[in-house]
Automatic annotation (TrEMBL), chain A:
KW Iron (keyword) present: no
One cellular component term from this protein's GO annotations in UniProt: plasma membrane
Superkingdom of the source species: Bacteria
Protein name in the entry: Macrolide ABC transporter ATP-binding protein
Organism: Pseudonocardia halophobica
From TrEMBL, chain B:
Signal sequence, start to end: none
Cell membrane found in the keyword field: yes
Similarity-based family: Belongs to the ABC-4 integral membrane protein family.
Domain (ABC3 transporter permease C-terminal) ranges: 280-398
Transmembrane helix keyword on record: yes
MacB-like periplasmic core domain ranges (all copies): 21-239
Keyword terms, alphabetized: Cell membrane, Membrane, Transmembrane, Transmembrane helix
Cellular compartment(s): Cell membrane
Membrane topology recorded in Swiss-Prot or TrEMBL: Multi-pass membrane protein
Name of protein: Peptide ABC transporter permease
Main location: membrane
Length: 222, 406
C-alpha cells in the first residue's frame, strides 16, 4: 500500500521558491494499475521522484508498505529502492555493453540475492525475451529494450513497479506491446504506477490521477 | 554486495575501455620498472664494491703523520720496535697480524732489454693476503726468504710490460738489476689498477740493498683478528703506539690509524645515498603515472554518470559505488605494478647478461626484494589515493541528477 499525506515539495533557487507539489494526498491500493497524468510542469516528475524514493518530500508523509520514508538515510533509501520499487524509465536506462541477463541481474547484485541467474532467466522469459538473454542493449529494438527494463523491474518482486513515460521513446506497435505487458503483470497482482502525458497510454490504466500545477485535479476509476 | 562482486563489476568496467586502461597502466608500468631497474643497478654497484674491498674490511693502516703536529714536536718514525710491540698478542689480542712495509723507488734494468723506473715495496711474506692480490705466474717469497733478505723480486704488470713486452712467463726466472743489485724475478702480480707500477721484495732486502733507513718502516698494515673486532684492534694499536711515542693527548698523535672498514662504510653509505637519489628520480615518473590514473578515473566517472545514476536508482549504496571505482583504479595500478615489476626484473636480468659482455667488469644489477615489495605496495597505494577523489565523487552523486545526465 502506498500513501501520500499532505505531501508538498518546494524547490528553491535563490529567492524564488517553486512549489512543485502542493499538499497532495493520495492512496494507492495493492494490485492497482494507476496512471498519473498531467501536462509538463504539473508536478509529474516530482511525484515520480518522491514515489520512487529518489527524493524526499519537503513536508508531509510518504508511507510505502507502512514504512515512513521521510526521515531515512541515503543507504536506507537505496535499500527501499532496491527491494520495494522496480523502475522503468522513458530512456530504458539499461547499462550499455552489458547483456540483457546481466542487466536484469543488477538489482539482485546489490541485494546480495542467491540464484540470480535462474531468477533473471525467469524474469526475461516472463517478458518474452528468453532467447535474447545474451544480447546487448544496442542489439535490441526499443520495445525489446523496454521489456528488458520491465524484467529488471520485476525481478526483485517489488511492492510497486514505477514507470516514468515508459512508452515515450517507442513506436505505436511497441507501445501497445509494452502496455499489454503491464496489463498482464497487473492482472497477475502487481501494483503498477504509470507516469505519462499520453491519453492513449492512460487508457490501459484502471485509475487515472490528473495533476495540474502541483495539485490533484482529477481522480477517476474506469 | 561483497568485494568479489565489486571487483567483477570493476574488471568489466576496465575491459570495456581496453586501450585506455592499458595506456593508463603503462604510466605505472614504466614508473615501477624504472624504480626497480635503477635500484638494481645501485645494488649491483654496492655489491661490486663490497666484493672488491670486502676482504680488506679487517685492515687497519698505520702511517706516520706528515708535516707538523700539534705540540711543536717532530713526528717520530714508526720503527721495527713499534711493529714488535703491535705483534705482542698479550697486549693486543684483537690484532691478528702485523705487516710492516717500506717504500721507495729505483731503476730496474734488464741487460739488453731497456730500463724502467719503478716504485719499490719492501714487505713480508703475507703481502698477497694483506693486499688482497694474486699472482699471474710464479710464487711469492716465503718467510725464510724474507728473513734471509733474499734477493728476489715480484714484479707488477707495468715493469713487466716495459721490460719483457708484457710476457709474464718471459720474466719468470730472469735476473733484473734493481739499483745496483741483481734480483731474480720469482713471480708476476696480477694488475689491480691501483698499484701496478711496483716491484715487491723482502723488507730486509729493500733496506739493505736499496733504501737504507735502519729500523724505520713507512707503513704498518694491521689486520684485526676478525671484522667484528676492528674497533678494538684500532683502540689497542693506538694505545700501544701512544705509550711508545709518549703521547697523552690523542690530538697530539704523530701517527695515523685508519680502519679501511670505516672507509668502506663511508663509500657504501655514499653509494646507498646515490641509489636512493636515483630511485627518487625514477619515483617522479611513478608520480606522473599516478596523476594519469587520477585523471582517467575522473574522466571515467564523468563519462559514466548515467550508469552511476542507474545503479543508484536500482539500489546501489554509496559504499558499493565507492568500492566499484576504487577497485577499478586499484586494478589499474596493481596490475600495472605487477607488470612493471616483471618488466623491471626482466630488464635488470638482461642488463646483467649483456652489459658485462660489452664493458669488462661491469657490475651486474641485482634486484632487491625490498624494492619489489615497496614498488607493489606503492602502486596499490597510488590506486587508492588517485582513485579516492573520483570514486568519492561518484558515490556522492544524487541519483536524480545522475540519471538526467546526458
Amino acid at each position: 500500500m502506498i500513501e501520500l499525506e499532505h505531501v508538498s515539495k518546494v524547490y528553491r533557487t535563490g529567492d524564488i521558491a517553486l512549489r512543485a507539489l502542493d499538499d497532495v494526498s493520495l492512496r494507492i491500493d495493492d494490485g492497482d494499475l494507476v496512471a498519473i497524468m498531467g501536462p509538463s510542469g504539473s508536478g509529474k516528475s516530482t511525484m515520480m521522484n518522491i514515489l520512487g524514493c529518489l527524493d524526499v518530500p519537503s513536508s508531509g508523509v510518504y508511507r510505502l508498505d507502512g514504512t515512513d520514508v521521510g526521515g531515512l538515510s541515503d543507504n536506507r533509501l537505496a535499500d527501499i529502492r532496491n527491494r520495494k520499487i522496480g523502475f522503468v524509465f522513458q530512456s530504458f536506462n539499461l547499462l550499455p555493453r552489458t547483456s540483457a541477463i546481466r542487466n536484469v541481474e543488477l538489482p539482485m547484485v546489490y541485494a546480495g540475492t542467491k540464484d540470480r541467474r535462474t531468477r533473471a532467466r525467469r524474469a526475461l522469459a516472463r517478458v518474452g525475451l528468453a532467447e535474447r538473454a545474451n544480447h546487448q542493449p544496442n542489439e535490441l529494438s526499443g520495445g525489446q529494450q523496454q521489456r528488458v527494463a520491465v524484467a529488471r523491474a520485476l525481478v526483485t518482486d517489488p511492492t510497486m513497479i514505477l514507470a516514468d513515460e515508459p512508452t515515450g521513446n517507442l513506436d505505436t506497435a511497441s507501445t501497445v506491446d509494452v502496455m499489454n505487458l503491464f496489463v498482464e503483470l497487473n492482472e497477475a497482482g502487481r501494483t503498477i504506477v504509470l507516469i505519462t502525458h499520453e491519453p492513449e497510454v492512460a487508457e490501459f490504466a484502471s485509475r487515472v490521477v490528473t495533476l495540474r500545477d502541483g495539485h490533484i485535479v482529477g481522480d477517476e476509476r474506469r | 554486495m561483497n568485494l568479489a562482486e565489486a571487483a567483477r563489476i570493476a574488471a568489466r568496467g576496465l575491459r570495456t575501455n581496453k586501450l585506455r586502461s592499458v595506456l593508463t597502466m603503462l604510466g605505472i608500468i614504466i614508473g615501477v620498472a624504472a624504480v626497480i631497474v635503477l635500484v638494481a643497478f645501485g645494488n649491483g654497484l654496492q655489491r661490486f664494491v663490497a666484493d672488491a674491498f670486502g676482504p680488506l674490511a679487517n685492515q687497519i693502516q698505520i702511517t706516520k703523520t706528515q708535516g707538523a703536529i700539534s705540540g711543536n714536536r717532530a713526528a717520530r718514525d714508526l720503527t721495527d720496535a713499534d711493529v714488535d710491540a703491535l705483534s705482542d698478542r698479550s697486549r693486543a689480542p684483537a690484532i691478528g697480524s702485523v705487516t710492516p712495509s717500506v717504500n721507495g723507488s729505483a731503476l730496474l734494468q734488464v741487460v739488453g732489454d731497456g730500463q724502467y723506473r719503478s716504485s719499490i715495496l719492501g714487505t713480508q711474506a703475507d703481502y698477497l693476503d694483506v693486499a688482497n692480490r694474486e699472482l699471474v705466474v710464479g710464487s711469492f717469497f716465503d718467510d725464510q726468504q724474507a728473513r734471509n733478505k733474499a734477493k728476489v723480486v715480484v714484479l707488477g704488470p707495468n715493469p713487466v710490460a716495459t721490460l719483457f713486452g708484457g710476457q709474464a712467463g718471459e720474466a719468470l726466472g730472469k735476473d733484473v738489476r734493481v739499483g745496483r743489485t741483481t734480483f731474480r724475478v720469482i713471480g708476476v702480480l696480477k694488475g689491480n689498477g691501483q698499484q701496478d707500477d711496483v716491484a715487491v721484495m723482502p723488507l730486509g732486502a729493500a733496506r739493505s740493498y736499496l733504501l737504507g733507513g735502519g729500523d724505520v718502516v713507512d707503513s704498518i698494515t694491521v689486520r684485526a683478528a676478525s671484522t667484528d673486532v676492528v674497533p678494538q684492534a684500532v683502540q689497542q694499536a693506538s694505545a700501544i703506539l701512544d705509550q711508545r711515542h709518549q703521547i697523552r693527548d690523542p690530538g697530539e698523535r704523530d701517527f695515523t690509524v685508519t680502519a679501511l672498514q670505516s672507509l668502506l662504510d663511508q663509500s657504501s653509505q655514499v653509494l646507498s645515498f646515490v641509489t636512493i637519489f636515483v630511485a627518487a628520480v625514477a619515483g617522479i615518473s611513478l608520480i606522473v603515472g599516478s596523476i594519469g590514473v587520477a585523471n582517467i578515473m575522473l574522466v571515467t566517472v564523468t563519462e559514466r554518470t548515467r550508469e552511476i545514476g542507474i545503479r543508484k536508482a536500482i539500489g546501489a549504496r554509496r559504499r558499493a559505488i565507492l568500492q566499484q571505482f576504487l577497485i577499478e583504479s586499484m586494478i589499474l595500478t596493481g596490475v600495472g605494478g605487477v607488470l612493471g615489476i616483471l618488466l623491471g626484473i626482466g630488464l635488470s636480468v638482461t642488463a646483467g647478461i649483456v652489459l658485462p659482455q660489452l664493458v669488462t667488469d661491469f657490475p651486474a644489477p641485482s634486484v632487491s626484494v625490498g624494492s619489489v615489495v615497496l614498488a607493489f605496495t606503492v602502486s596499490l597505494l597510488i590506486g587508492l589515493v588517485a582513485g579516492g577523489y573520483p570514486a568519492n565523487r561518484a558515490a556522492r552523486m544524487r541519483p536524480i541528477d545522475a540519471l538526467r545526465h546526458q
